[in-house]
Amino acid sequence: MRRGYADTRLGQLHYAVAGNGHPLVLLPQGGRTWPMFATLAQELAGDFCCYAVDYPGSGGSDPLPGDATFADIAGAVVDLLDALAVPDAFVYGIHTGNKVAAAMAAGWPERVRKVVLAGQSHSIVPDNQRRAQTVGRFRKKLLREADERETAMVHWADTFGVVSGVWWQESLVRDIADADMRAIAVVKTVDEIQSSASMPALYRANFAFDLHGAYTRIKVPTLVLELVTPSEDQLIGRQGAAVAALIPGATVATLEAEDFHGITLEARPVELARILRNYLGGPA
Q: Fewer CB within 10 A of the terminal residue: the chain, N end or C end?
């Protein structure tokens, strides 16, 4: 993928681009960067020009301001489109990306041709208070007022927990001879460490974001792609239908996955590319 920078309201935004066709913006999970989409972009390159974005505070982008909102981040992505002279684009966002994508579709509908909101059930819960309750205990502690030492310790523990979860995930250990799975884990680990300083601000923005309100303001064609797992089926229940009920004309698709928090579909690029190609369809 070719890479570049654009000046935005949140400083320089780093991106990677590949392919030909109508623009498709790829918005990652929080703490991740453009390599998360490298294989997916290869799969889609014949139909779309894919722009994979590093959020402020991640990868090659400038730091994330402590008071930034998801609307600010969405606006920075719109600024990127302006810098690239892209009038409108398809948008795909997963986990944190689905909130940024929802903010783009709600706030700049003229710039979003179609949007795909992807995430595990906990990530797309419409009720803001209930969604906040699904966030892990360390990340909740990141937002609590505390002395400098305690704050630093919680942040350190949170980063270790995320990295350890990636490094020792059951599916990887079970298939440890799989070089592709190991490579994905290495990229995830590097991303998480590099972007760890931005996570408190990103989670403040997450907690403050009115996802329910954003859903109700989306008027562009929308696909809700729910990643379902046995544990979330039991603890949370499927949320796709509730989300689609808030967005006129929205449709729902599901993908089943193993139980692991933070599923990114990096190991399933062909399947994800087929879903995106079938829904987005290319230029009208």
A: C
